[in-house]
Design brief:
LysR_subst-bd, seven-stranded mixed beta sheet, Arc Repressor Mutant, subunit A, D-Maltodextrin-Binding Protein, domain 2, HTH-type_LysR_regulators, 11 strands, 285 residues, two-stranded antiparallel sheet, 3 domains, alpha/beta
């Protein structure tokens, strides 16, 4: 491609010497570029004379096409720079409420300090919803647990605790920690989490059966119901970052940690903006 630009430079400056100087080549290198182009097109394009250079008839015929090629290359380079700068790019993310409420806004804000023009499309769902969105290409990547994201490429990002969510008036709120057995005896509000429910798995692991009175979709409705003392629940501690709404949380005994990972199908085919954001997230671990 340099040979196309070399021809235009020779025509613009009227000599090989001046064109070579402007392009940072030696005169012999500039001559070689023109010869390479003439060999490619199988014709002579330029004739040198005492007054400078001039195009041959074939050169005149090829010139408009060479200009179009150079213009297209220039536009391609601008597009590349634009993509590398993440201009007008959209990052599509699947997230569950607790990560969308706590860490994600902070990460987005930090990322946009470097790439202010990037846009985000955030879709909220449970673990199974997010796995489905990743699989079908609705989102570029999503936040999941390792159990729900095991069929994708993923890396662990953060951890948080599962905690007991209680009304401030509930007797268990006076304790420093709450056992699963104590929670199992209370009217229980179960948050719907898709095909894999961490809370139910936790009870099953300890051979306990909770007294489920309500099955609710979404974190905030659960919190509101607990605040009305309709029952108790188990929720991620991330939900209580800057938020209580009439409830308190207590550590579980024994404690239970939740691992949060980022999952995607194939990093190589993701948009540049999404790959850049994934690299940024990996540094947060």
């Amino acid at each position: 491609m340099n040979s196309y630009f070399a021809l235009l430079a020779v025509l613009e400056y009227g000599s090989f010497t001046k064109a070579a100087e402007k392009m940072g080549y030696t005169q012999s290198a500039m001559s070689q570029l023109i010869k390479t182009l003439e060999k490619e097109l199988e014709t002579t394009l330029i004739i040198r004379s005492r007054t400078g250079v001039m195009l041959t008839p074939d050169g005149e015929a090829f010139l408009p096409y060479i200009k179009q090629i150079c213009q297209a290359i220039g536009e391609l380079e601008e597009k590349k720079k634009s993509m590398q700068g993440l201009e007008r790019s959209m990052i599509r993310i699947g997230a569950f409420s607790s990560i969308a409420y706590s860490y994600l806004p902070i990460w987005i804000q930090q990322f946009k300090q470097h790439y202010p023009a990037v846009q985000f499309d955030l879709k909220i769902g449970d673990y199974s919803d997010i796995a489905e969105m990743i699989a079908t290409g609705v989102v570029d990547f999503g936040f999941v647990t390792p159990e729900t994201g095991h069929t994708f490429e993923l890396f662990e990002l953060v951890e948080d605790d599962l905690v007991a969510c209680l009304s401030k008036e509930h007797p268990l709120a006076q304790q420093s920690s709450v056992t699963l057995a104590e929670l199992a005896c209370e009217p229980f509000i179960l948050m719907q989490e898709g095909t894999i429910n961490e809370t139910l798995s936790l009870f099953e692991k300890h051979q306990l059966v909770p007294n489920i009175q309500y099955v609710v979709e979404g974190d905030f409705p659960v919190i509101s119901m607990v605040a009305q003392n309709l029952g108790v629940s188990i929720m991620p501690s991330l939900m209580f970052h800057h938020f209580d709404k009439g409830v308190i949380h207590r550590p579980l005994h024994p404690p239970k940690r939740r691992k949060i990972s980022v999952a995607y199908k194939d990093k190589e085919i993701l948009p540049i903006a999404s790959r850049m954001f994934l690299q940024f997230l990996a540094k947060q671990h």
